[in-house]
Amino acid sequence: SYRFGLPSSTNILGLPIGQHMSVAATIQGQPKEVVRSYTPISSDEDQGYFDLLIKSYPTGNISKHVATLKIGQTLKVKGPKGAMVYTPGLVRHFGMIAGGTGITPMLQIIRAIIRGRPRNGGKDTTQVDLIFANVNVEDILLKDDLDKLAAEDEGFRVYYVLNNPPEKWDGGVGFCTPEMIKVIGVSMLEATALIMIQERLPPPAKDIKILICGPPPMVSAMKKATDSLGYEKPKPVSKLVDQVFCF
Question: For residue 176, which of 140, 143, 221, 229 has the smallest C-alpha distance?
């Protein structure tokens, strides 16, 4: 993760829960400015800075650019962006499906819910079930944070899914990543997803939402899976009122 300072040590980012920001950079060899979207893993409890989780890819323009920044250099950011704005009481129960770096908007919402629990002086009783899919165990981003939150909050449960699980593994086995789609095909992927969604996430109801974020092939497969399970058909572009919301 990378930490970026705000103009003053008492400034907060002020990004509404559920929203994201864009990061832009002019990169040598690219004809125009490169823009990518990120959800901070810090919150407004943190003053004077914000943190971004940026995974490095061999062909990743922004990730390479950020890795070369020196202390004191600046980053061009813009926000807030996105149609999701979380407020306590929005739903009774969230079901979340995340793949890879798609965990960041989920974590932002989970942390806000737990901060607002009655034991912390709030009124938020929202239940949360998260399915988090990755290729290998070492790819699981923010696992310590998620496990700590699940241990301290009985209203939050996380279920890990891996394509290549280690020998002793009590989580699920593959369904959410592009690599897995190439190996087993979309139809098999959807069949595996159907079982996990039925077992782990809240059934269709007026007061629940399913949130999805991850690689595009995974998002597409999960939209089909939720549709076939009787959730409201996901829209091409998600709005806050939608039962199935894709970031």
Answer: 221
213 is catalytic: yes
- Phi and psi at residue 89, to the nearest 5°: 90, 0
Are 198 and 167 contacting, i.e. CB atoms less than 8 angstroms apart?
Answer: no
pLDDT in tens, 182-203: 554 555 566 677 788 888 999 9
Q: Are 124 and 117 in contact (CB under 8 A)?
A: yes
Q: Which residue out of 39, 104, 177, 226 is catalytically annotated?
A: 39
Mean pLDDT of 100-118: 96
Q: Which two tokens stand for residue 196?
A: 């996990």
Average confidence (pLDDT) over 170-180:
63
Is 159 an annotated catalytic residue? no
Q: Is 39 a catalytic residue?
A: yes
| In the chain, beta strands by DSSP E | 2-5, 20-25, 34-38, 49-52, 76-81, 93-99, 127-134, 156-162, 172-173, 208-213, 244-246
Is the per-residue pLDDT at 72 higher than 80? yes
pTM across the whole model = 0.89
**pLDDT score at 184:** 47
- pLDDT at residue 181 greater than cutoff 50: no
38 belongs to the catalytic site: yes
The answer to whether 23 and 35 have CB atoms below 8 angstroms apart is yes
Q: How far apart, in whole angstroms, are the C-alpha atoms of residue 173 and residue 147?
A: 19
Question: Does residue 111 contact residue 15 with C-beta atoms inside 8 Å?
Answer: no
